[in-house]
Amino acid sequence: MIQDIIDSKTNSTILSFFLVAPERSFSVLEVSKRLGIPHARAGQALGHLSNQGVLKGFSKRGKRYYLLNNRHKLMPEIRKYLQKQGPKYQDELFSAIKKLGKIRAAFLSGIFTGYPNLPVDLLLVGKVNLNKLDMFLRNAQKLMGLEINYSIMTVEEFLLRRDTFDKFIKDIFDYRHIAVVDELGGKKKR
What we know:
This protein is α+β, with helices and mostly antiparallel strands.
């Protein structure tokens, strides 16, 4: 029953956010700040939604992260019940990544996609402004609650490593990943 899952305004607000936000993981702190909900209340609601199976939760270095479980049996009904009409949520993280320089490709992996043990959370391809990257990393780390593992490659290096099925690149594309920018065709077709 949907009412058992969405038994409070906080739960429905958080679930509505996850339905319109990009499908990536969010820390308790980030959800709390973005929605203006006290940290303890946000953590409690996220835990409840995770226990109900609507969100998937995982930990890394003692921090909790959550993402939407699209396979939950009631998800179609929940979407219909909660999803608001209008534009999707604009993720500041995506906007900030696009402004880091002449980015030709950017992929979120690892902590952002529910695979915290992968070696990289953010892969940037192109010419990156290191001052902007430093500021971005500081802000992202505050919201995520831990250090963001990142890698920067030139276009040539990325294409070579992608086309030779390099393990590092393969680990990103074999698991769930999010293409924030992809002017290079990302994963090579086999």
